[in-house]
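Listing S7. Sequence submitted for prediction.
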Amino acid sequence: MEFLAQFGYVVLGVWILAESIGLPLPAMPMLLAAGALAARGPFQLWLALTVSVCSCLVSDLFWFAIGRRGNQKVLKLICRVSLEPDSCVRRTTKLIEKYGAKSLLVSKFVPGLNAVAAPLAGSSGLPLRRFFIFDLMGSIIWCGTFLGAGYLFREKVTALADRLAQFKWQLAVTLLVIIPAAYISFKFWQRRKFIREIWMERISPEELFQRIQAGEKLLVVDLRHPLDFLPDPRILPQAVRILPEDLEQGLMEIPRGHEVVLYCT
């Protein structure tokens, strides 16, 4: 809070922008601190809200433009950083398809969703004006929630900050090193465990190619969502595209005697 009070709105805006772009800098504590400072005098609440919302919009419009241009390298990077590349695009796409632009009202409250919501909104063809309106409303709701909480509960926020200040280095190491490392390790173990469980059911690309060349009766099914093609639009030769939710119905149409090979992201 002393750091924020000393350097003012510039630090608040840059911090929010960095978190919105995707850097591991949690913005919620900064917004709570700014709200508490607004109640004590150094900050003005409306100006803190304006700066924070503008930082969100700058980042989101940048990612929206990237998605609109269909920049494959950027979308692939986002999915890899998400630690869940198999479902990174699909989960966000389903949310956007179900709720449309309204999903932007809550996307910033959902960990991981904020990183991909804007580029996928752009790639899905959402009009810029509609995106801007709902993203503006979502940014106001998100920033206003934590600024307002800091303003209303300023005494508790200040008291908590004073307590945490006694352990600032331990807290910094925990938040920036230990917790991220533990989460990444858990996700890595979880993924390796899943791969080991299904390994006997897997087939290598080389083996599949050889069997296709040998003329075996194989049916290759592409389970990827249409937006999954943005990071990599290629498709295997003779593959049939079926969405996972339509798989059971689609398999009923497959001729008997064919071995089925499924692949996704």
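Caption to Listing S7: primary sequence and predicted structure tokens for the chain studied. Residues 168-198 form the longest helix (31 residues). Strands lie at 218-222, 240-241, 259-263.
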